[in-house]
Amino acid sequence: MRRRRLIGLAGLTTAVLLAVLASIAIGTKVIPPNEVLSALVAPTGTENDVVVRALRIPRTVLGVLVGVALGLAGALVQGFTRNPLGDPGLLGVNAGAAFFVVVGIYVFGVTSLFGYVWFAFAGALVASVVVFVIGTRAPGGATPVTLALSGAAVTFLLSALTSSIVLLDETSLDAYRFWSVGSLAGRDAAVGGQVVWFIVAGAILALASAPALNALSLGDDVATSLGHSVRRTRIVGVIAITLLAGAATAACGPIVFLGLIVPHVVRAFTGPDHRWLLPASALAGAVLLLLADVVGRVVARPGELQVGIVVALIGGPFFIALVRRRKLGAV
Amino acid sequence: MSATTEAPPAPPAVPGRRPIRYGRFSGVLRMRPLVVLLICAVVLLLAAAANMGRGDYPIAITDVLATLFGGGDAGQQLVVLELRLPRTLVGALVGGALAVSGAILQSIARNPLASPDIIGVQWGASAAAVFVIVLGGGAVGVGGSFAALGIPLAALVGGLVSSLVVYVLAWRRGIQGFRLVLIGIGIQAVLVAAVQWLLTVAQIYQAAQAQVWLNGSLNARSWNEVVPLSIAMAVLVPAALILAHLLGGLRFDDDTARGLGIRVNGARTGLLLVSVGLASVATAAAGPIAFVALVCPQIARRICRVGSPPIAASMMLGAALTVLADLIARTALGSIELPVGIITAVLGAPYLLYLLARSRQEARA
């Protein structure tokens, strides 16, 4: 097992490097690897150097950050809720962020991505807390179904409120529809700079709670008898999930399913141990997001398909296969 | 002790109620559902009357009545007979159709959360309609007049196709309620992504038009919608009522239902077709009005105090609720009109949350 894990981690690290390279080299204009390298090491101010340094690298860095955040958030949600269908997007985080962003546009006249970030963050926080509280207070606890459905209900409600605003105000609609698909395009380095510390903090909390998650997976009683405070562990978990998912959503809009897919794929070689699962999910999240972004740039030339849409098109069938394959507790 | 040779007369199946028999059909007369039906009808009539009277051009209720029966001046006749009456009728028909659709689906899935909102009918219809709104002019190479006919038609086809896909994917040696719901959520997420992409490639006015459609609106609905809706309801609702006596048996597990003499798969398929048909027709006419199909059957079930959602009471409640929501949507914000679906979502979503929080036993009933 240990051998398989080490090989898996090494493979993932290589995959991250390759995905980063692809993300820098491939786009509307394909730049050969040697010129990518020269642009990185010894820029001479050619057009390719400018494209690489000003456009592709900031986008790639943001992609890595967001991918890491969503991969970790997905693994955390699934661990804390013992719910194989856990995904921050399915739990209302996206709808909460979207609603607050629209409020920001309509009520406060925010127009820049730089300004959306804080609204998205607050919205993600509110929605995730509401969904968790409702989902876990239901008698029988946070089963896959109660969480997925309370997420769906909160999403419905917030989407209706979002719609009513964008219907009243065409300017809001125009700004919102581009934010709402989930994209790395046009997000400059400043946006990454705004969210990076939240992601770092979230990642530290996430990795630190790995042992407690392992204990929790044996049940609340066992975890308590092993000396973990279940309540405190859960609170830390919700904070970490909100930091990670909120920052990711704030930076590049709602992306659903990435957090769902990644932990399932990674478990194939890490097994259920969260000390391995969490770091591997972080790396795999970055790989998946970067590749989805590259695919979106390639398939719809000269335009591009936003990364949120590519991920949803991959993730939907994956989710369905998962539901069909498993006996999901109450499901 | 000798065995009795003659069994005592069997007590009535439901104590205190007289059984009714007619040929193969039998049942008991329950007063409560009838009273509920009557009250809902009264609410529907009042809401309809208010909906026809209120608005930018207010008309007194007596004048509304007079106009309906042939009186009124030319202006009142135009407003009532050509604008508000058909709109109100579309609202009532759509609400009724959605509620019946939900009642059937919830009975089949044995799950109060199953509803055409959730299993893909409405988002399939939405994706198809937005596709026509956004690309209908250019890419498909058809003009505006086709788009007017094409949007409802596309919505109808889209709803049927996506519900079929959900059903086929959820089928695994039979249909389980929760699997149906979760597969529906998965398909819905894909369709949502598709719709959002379409919105980004659209012109802003097309995006605005699509946004209105996406929320379910009764704005500018005319006799053109009333006629096909009425025909569909006239066929599908009696079919639902005739099949409804099977619903009681379908509440049990398959073996029990078979023991009661129900052809389980045949009954289920027939009912499902009726349900999806009703939801698709309603969505084609007015867009995806949220939560009516989910909420009304459950409320009707509770106030009627019966085991599974009652068809007739659900229908009347759905009609009344939709007309009432439209009245609020039209008049709450002064001259600004909201789509009716926003009001039903704001009323319905908290109810869904309540349903979840209240009890899991309830959710699995």
From TrEMBL, chain B:
InterPro entries: ABC_BtuC-like, ABC_transptr_permease_BtuC. One of its GO terms (molecular function) is transmembrane transporter activity. Gene3D superfamilies: ABC transporter involved in vitamin B12 uptake, BtuC (1.10.3470.10). Keywords: Cell membrane, Membrane, Transmembrane, Transmembrane helix, Transport. It is found in: Cell membrane. SUPFAM superfamilies: ABC transporter involved in vitamin B12 uptake, BtuC (SSF81345). GO terms for biological process: siderophore-iron import into cell. Signal peptide: none annotated. The keyword Transmembrane applies. Its main location: membrane. The chain crosses the membrane at residues 34-53, 89-109, 121-140, 146-169, 181-206, 226-250, 271-291, 311-329, 336-357. It is a multi-pass membrane protein. One of its GO terms (cellular component) is plasma membrane. Belongs to the binding-protein-dependent transport system permease family. FecCD subfamily. This is Iron-uptake system permease protein FeuC. It comes from Pseudonocardia autotrophica. The lineage of its organism: Bacteria, Bacillati, Actinomycetota, Actinomycetes, Pseudonocardiales.
